[in-house]
Amino acid sequence: MSQELINLIKNRRSIFPASYTREEISKETLLEVIEAANTAPTHKLTQPWRFTIFRGNGLVKLADKFAELYQEGTPAPLFMQKKLDATREKVLQSSAVIAINLHVSGALPEWEELAATACAVENLWLAASALGIGGYWSSPGTISQLSDFLNLAPNEKCIGLFYMGYHQEEPKAANRKSVETVVRWEE
Ligand SMILES: Cc1cc2nc3c(=O)[nH]c(=O)nc-3n(C[C@H](O)[C@H](O)[C@H](O)COP(=O)(O)O)c2cc1C
């Protein structure tokens, strides 16, 4: 089991919407991955992560919002219908998209709550991988313009969108520098 767990961690990859099969992810399954996220470590137990889960018609609303942001934020000479369509398509190819929101409590330095939220996302990502669901963390500049759409409180901000879908991708090794480059021993 411990080696299985290590392999799960090492084999987690970013899987993008073009690879999703569009099979529905049940609410029950989504809650299972959120349960995993919710057990992440958190200093003073502030549990600073918040999630807005888009599925079904919620995905259409999110796709429309991204299309609107692209249209509003792109000067006419740079506007490309292909880009707008691709932005919408990415959302609509997903079986669920989870907005990752940070709730800043003020009880701790903000970086600690950001770090805890990133731990929660890794938990979510691993749990999804274990269930055969692919996903990836997307952080476009437009996330800073989603506060009203997501009904966020003044002390909350969106730090990314987690796209999700079942997929048939073959396992792929991680593309990383070797551990020697990131470790310094003091013995
Ligand atoms: C905080 C964070 C933000 C990310 N934002 C994006 C993004 O905007 N677009 C993207 O294609 N990948 C994004 N990624 C995914 C990384 O590109 C990906 O994890 C990296 O290439 C390693 O690949 P792997 O996840 O398959 O191991 C993000 C990852 C993290 C942790």
Summarize the structure.
The protein is α+β, with helices and mostly antiparallel strands and about 190 residues long. It has helices at about 1-10, 25-35, 55-75, 80-90, 110-130, and strands at about 50-55, 95-105, 135-140, 155-165.
Q: Which characteristics define this entry?
A:
globular; single chain; 4 strands; 4-stranded antiparallel sheet; 187 residues; NADH Oxidase; alpha+beta; binds flavin mononucleotide
Structural account:
The chain has 187 residues and is of the alpha+beta class. It has one domain (12-169): NADH Oxidase (3-Layer(aba) Sandwich). It has helices at residues 2-11, 27-37, 57-73, 81-92, 110-130; strands spanning 49-54, 96-103, 133-138, 156-166. Helix 2 packs across helix 5 and helix 3 packs antiparallel against helix 4. The model has no long low-confidence stretch (mean pLDDT 97). The structure holds flavin mononucleotide (FMN). Residues 13-14, 136-140, 160, 174 line the site of flavin mononucleotide.
**What is the CATH class name?**
Alpha Beta
Bound compounds: flavin mononucleotide
CATH architecture: 3-Layer(aba) Sandwich
DSSP summary: helix tally = 5
Number of domains: 1
Strand order across the largest sheet: 1-2-4-3
Number of strands: 4
Distance between the termini: 31 Å
Poorly predicted ranges (pLDDT <50, ≥5 residues)?
none
Q: What is the overall pLDDT average?
A: 97
Strand content: 15-25%
Instruction: Give me the strand/helix succession.
Output: HHEHHEHEE
